[in-house]
Amino acid sequence: MSAPVILVVDDEPANLAQLRSILGQDYQMVYARDGAEAMAAVLKHRPALVLLDVGLPDICGYVLCTELRRIDPGQALQVIFITANSGAEQEAAGFAAGGVDYIVKPVHAPLVRARVAAHLSLVRATMLERSYRDAIQMLGHAGHFNDNDTGAHIWRMAAYAVALAHAAGWNAQRCAQLELAAPMHDTGKLGVPQAILQKPGPLNAGEWAIMRTHPRLGHDILSKSDAPVFRLAAEIALYHHERWDGGGYPYGLAGTDIPESARIVALADVFDALSMRRPYKEAWPVSDIVSHLRAGAGLQFDPRLTTLFIDLMPQLLQIQQRYADPA
User: Fold this and answer.
1) For residue 264, which of 174, 138, 197 has the smallest C-alpha distance?
2) What is the pTM of this model?
3) Regarding the domain delimited by 5-130, which CATH topology (the fold level of the hierarchy) does it fall under?
4) In the chain, where are the structural domains located?
5) What are phi and psi for residue 82, nearest 5 degrees?
6) CA-to-CA distance for 165 and 157, rounded, in angstroms?
7) What's the CATH architecture for 143-322?
8) pLDDT tens digit string along 117-167?
9) Contact (CB, 8 A) for 28 and 8
């Protein structure tokens, strides 16, 4: 793996040389003597970290920091100010401009190395988190690639599920995991033929048998990971078609034997399916959806969760507007 790129911006050659001697053996170093060179260097070299002087000949370092972060292609650029301008007000200005640290000259080599290493570890963590979320988003979309649902569906449904989970007493950490896990509930549809997923009419018995394999298929895919989000996603994928009365699939579980995560997603998924227009149907009026959910309480749905969900209707309709399907 190549070493991270660090951009040093300072108009004094001695300062550039000093930082090269401190960091040059461990990192790829790029240098700029003013704001214009720094802007060009960010676009060309995409550094992970910038060491930035405040007193530049063509622009204030605080202003430049804001501009560098704005044009950063990866939107993850970390800026450390290295300057002779000391004092609480100067440091506050640096942090307000978007800097992540503030080192006062003359610099000490061990301090510079330690702070650079610490902030680069944060960059790696940020990029890993972004990659993690991107992978989840792609997997969620893949589960609906061959059916009639739009991309907005999975995130809208996840937002409904999180609202219900919060009302049901889930803590913030579990709700955050659910927000990422719920969109992957139909991952198993990757193994269902497109002709079945897009069939305009009712499925026959053989087609239903194939369709009902998708919870197990999704679980098989998602359970390959030990990460908590994927473990939760695998649980939801496997059980979200179970029914409170035991009439669901794949196992015919009933009541609280069905994991609460799956009971939550089942309600959110049905609400979204009924409330949105599709090529094969019109959107149901809210009053009809509420009647359908009430009728299903104790049969298809967890009665307690159904009551909570209906009570959340004003919030759910706000979520619906926020994640509206594209026209």
Assistant:
1) 174
2) 0.66
3) Rossmann fold (3.40.50)
4) 5-130, 143-322
5) -125, 110
6) 12
7) Orthogonal Bundle (1.10)
8) 988 887 776 666 666 777 777 776 665 555 555 557 888 999 999 999 999
9) no
Closest among 60, 14, 67 to 39, alpha carbons compared: 67
**CB distance 213 to 192 below 8 Å:** yes
- How far apart CA 30 and CA 5 sit, in angstroms, is 7
Task: Tell how far CA 79 is from the center of its chain.
Answer: 24
Quote the tokens at residue 132.
Answer: 């993690």
| CA 283 vs CA 273, 278, 289: distances in Å | 8, 7, 10
Other C-beta atoms closer than 10 Å to the C-beta of 233 total: 31
Assess contact for 259 and 235: CB atoms under 8 A: yes
- Torsions phi, psi for 223 (to 5 deg): -80, 0
CB 127 within 8 A of CB 76: yes
Sorted by sequence, the CB contacts under 8 Å of residue 260 that are 6+ apart come out as: 168, 302, 305
